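Render this sequence as a predicted structure.
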Amino acid sequence: MNNTIFEGSDLARDMLAKGANKIWCAVSDNSDEEAMTDHDGNDFTASVVSFYDGFFYCTAGMAWSFAVPIKIVALTKSEKNLCTYEPC
């Protein structure tokens, strides 16, 4: 049995190889770390649908070098202490 633990872009590649057809990811052209930390602008997440020729491709057809699978969930009122701005 293979007990390899994948994370970051390796996990995204493994998920796609195992049949995932859309993976919500933080994306970057420089590194997994940058994908998870550089959130300026509106182009830091994408719905990744494939990996070929060394690039991840999203539903918009953009190519990315790195794609880290993420989970997006809505905050609830009870989690408002996570808010760092007013009027939370």
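Summary. Strands lie at 23-28, 45-52, 55-58, 63-64, 66-69. The chain is about 20% helix and 25% strand.
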